[in-house]
Every structure is written in structure tokens, then in C-alpha cells.
Design goal:
Helix content is about 45%, strand content about 15%. By secondary structure, the chain is α/β, with parallel strands linked by helices.
């Protein structure tokens, strides 16, 4: 069986304001690589961690869960602190958006945040579906046989605890939204599932000022990629440049 390695983190040094960029569930650093480069071109330092198991075959992916990925995020935030950046902001898409909100809830010294395509609710079936999509996409790219693909998909049935942790953490994050006092930009794509527009409005209503909400009509779920990418980048650059004053 093919052995894969976790994608490497991205670290682009720039100015004294560092931005931690967080990718999606079943995604990789590629989700926000372009955004990291764009923000770095604007003078920011950017850092993109890779979550444990992401980019690997499903048999390895399911050895990790929300606790591990949250630890990856915490270690990345601490790394930027240790590097001496006094001003740190955070931005993330989907799962990365959830982690963005959680960081803002826990660390009042974080400067500001951008949360894209954030779900306010997930169930086990939805998480299993995403895992199946992930494995199908990756296995096809690697040229796995039908039998090898079936072996990978079979690992999903053992991920009940991982899925439960995922759902529970979302609930905890949604409960803590009122604790956030930093400036937050909530974003969602016009071509994404309608549930994400509803989630964005829910989160926006629960947050304190200062807060903003924006729809990028051409964007899908992974807002920093594909159609709507330029508009997404422009909105985020404008937000962070304004908050950097």
C-alpha cells in the first residue's frame, strides 16, 4: 500500500503582525496557500499548520480526531508566540473557521479573526459522508483498485467516537460565541449549501461588536479557492489591513 506523508506547514515571514491560517476538514494546507501568499505580499507573516492525518489514506486519517487537530492548532499559535509576534490574528475555512472561533474564545490577546464557511451543526452521517468523499477522491488520484478502495472505506465504520467528538466540539464553540470580544469577520459563499448561510447569520447574531458579515456570491465552500477566490482574498486583506492600523 502507498505510504503518504502529512503536507508540510507553510511559514512565510513578513511583518510583525502574524496571521495563523487554518484549513478545512479533509482538506490540506493547499486550502489557504494562496491566501497565505497574498497576505504575506501585503506585509503580514503567515503560518499554515497541517492537521494530523490530513492528506493521508483513510486508514491513517481515522487514527486522529478533533482533539489531535485542536492540539495542532494550539501548538501553531504557541509557535507564533514563541517566535516573538506580539500581534497575532487567525483566519480559517470550515473546520478552520470553527478553530478560529475557539481560539478567539480562549485567547483574548488574539488580535482579530476571520471565519469562513463555518457549520453551526454537524451530525455523524454528515461527517461519514465527508470521509467517504475524501477517500474516494484520494484513492482515485492514487490509482487504488476497487478492492483497495473498499478496504479504505471500511475504516469509516470505526470512526463513531471521532464523529461524536467533532459534533460535541461544534456545540461547545457555538455556546461560547458570546465570550469573543475581538473584531471578527464572518464570511460565506453564495454557491455553498444554504445551511452555511444560515450558520453565518446565527454566528453573527451571537457575536458582540465589532463584527462584520459578508457573502462572496461566486464562492463555494472552500472560499479561498476557485471562483470567488480573488474577492475572498480582497475582503480578508482589507479587513486585516484596517484592523492593523
Amino acid at each position: 500500500m502507498i505510504k503518504l506523508k502529512n503536507p508540510r506547514p507553510i511559514y512565510l515571514k513578513g511583518g510583525n503582525h502574524a496571521i495563523l491560517l487554518l484549513h478545512s476538514f479533509t482538506g490540506t494546507v493547499r486550502d489557504v496557500k494562496g491566501l497565505a501568499q497574498r497576505l504575506n505580499n501585503e506585509g503580514f507573516t503567515t503560518y499554515v499548520p497541517s492537521y494530523q492525518g490530513h492528506g493521508l489514506l483513510l486508514e491513517d486519517f481515522v487514527k486522529s480526531d478533533m482533539d489531535d487537530w485542536w492540539q495542532n492548532v494550539l501548538e501553531s499559535y504557541k509557535f507564533l508566540k514563541q517566535e516573538g509576534y506580539e500581534t497575532i490574528s487567525v483566519a480559517g475555512v470550515s473546520l478552520g473557521g470553527l478553530f478560529t472561533l475557539k481560539l478567539l474564545e480562549i485567547f483574548p490577546d488574539i488580535h482579530s479573526g476571520v471565519a469562513m464557511s463555518v457549520p453551526r451543526f454537524k451530525d455523524e452521517a454528515g461527517i461519514f459522508y465527508r470521509l467517504e468523499q475524501y477517500s474516494t477522491r484520494l484513492d482515485k488520484m492514487l490509482g487504488l483498485s476497487e478492492d483497495e478502495h473498499a478496504e479504505q472505506i471500511a475504516h469509516i465504520q470505526n470512526y463513531h467516537l471521532g464523529a461524536q467528538k467533532f459534533c460535541r466540539m461544534i456545540d461547545e464553540i457555538m455556546t461560547g460565541l458570546s465570550q469573543i470580544n475581538q473584531p471578527v469577520l464572518i464570511m460565506y459563499g453564495g454557491r455553498d449549501d444554504a445551511s452555511y448561510a444560515e450558520s453565518a447569520q446565527y454566528i453573527f447574531q451571537k457575536l458582540k461588536e465589532p463584527k462584520q458579515i459578508s457573502i462572496i456570491s461566486e464562492a463555494g465552500h472552500l472560499m479561498p479557492l476557485g471562483r470567488g477566490q480573488l474577492q475572498t482574498e480582497e475582503m480578508i486583506v482589507s479587513f486585516f489591513c484596517h484592523k492593523n492600523v
